[in-house]
Fold:
Amino acid sequence: MDILTPEQRHKCMSHIRSSDTKPEVFFRKALWKWGIRYRKNVKKLFGTPDIAIKKYKIVIFIDGDFWHGHDWKKRHFSSQEELLSSYSIFWQKKIKRNIERDKEVNKYYHKHKWTILRFWTSVTEKKLNECIIKTIKKINQIKKLEILS
Structure:
């Protein structure tokens, strides 16, 4: 049950950013510090990745836990019935569609031989260095492949 009125909920939800969120900004600053140059929110690329490193054909998405369904089926609920009753039909449909869209984006980039990295905002907030290291390792793998070929 929501404790806010529909007007209050609308106001709160309308202030949530879709780009340049704090986790994205911290992630980008860390990449820049390591000398990794990128483009942000490239609309010409499919799915508008949060970060694109075109030189190495890498796209990075920093996915919001709620919006992209992190642990969707077990998120604070003991059963699927509890989950369905706690979220309105609107949010259920929206989150399920976001999950499907993420799968479509992944499929597209795999088909076009791009590397796709996805990080949950909760993970980037707690373990930013690990996420950056994973990204740098991926770049180094691609560099090695370029040298070998």
